[in-house]
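Handout, section B. The chain below has 223 residues.
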Amino acid sequence: MTVERYPRSARRYHTAIYVLTLLLLATGWWLLAGREGEPSPLARLTGLPDVTIHTSLGWALFLVALLPLPFALGGLARFLRETLRYDRGDVRWLVHLPAAVITGRFPRHEGHFDPGQRIANVAIVGLLAILVASGIGLVLIHVGPLFALLATVHRLATIGFTIVIAGHIVIALGILPGYRGIWRSMHLGGKVSLDTARRLWPGWTERHDTATDLDASSPGGRA
């Protein structure tokens, strides 16, 4: 038996964001490495300078991230509510996390996201906002102390964001034993096995099962 963690619209939004983000990181690190005068493989493929590609990808991410939000206010509100929630057992969950990623024995939590995911959500969204804002500033301002400050902020945010994303990818791919099966939550239909859901999101799974049972037992509901 499987359960659906995220609707198709959320999975598509997530895919668009991470594809653009990974391309931005790739081109950004190429430039940070001082290889601006040496065309990257992407620059050779497109015939465009790396700076132009990086800037264009930044504007694309800005538009893709913001344009759908007015049409998904309910989903945005739920994301914020679940990301910013705090339960009494969250500290205990975080203390047991290093062992749980190996054993799979996570303490119980009640959220849609586990406490680690909530911290990662704040870090990813916050650093991404800093990257986009400082990047726009670098496009508009070309010289002076403010440009130097923005360049430093952009560089530091890139380093921090890369570290957070690397950890996010390791967990999301299910490489760690405790997170096996999690990668399907955003891919291949967005469904995970019931055992995986109960192990990683016990409170949410129980609420999901209850809602499903109520829907099935209601007049005209699913059999």
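Note. Strands lie at 2-4, 191-193. Compare this with the example in section A.
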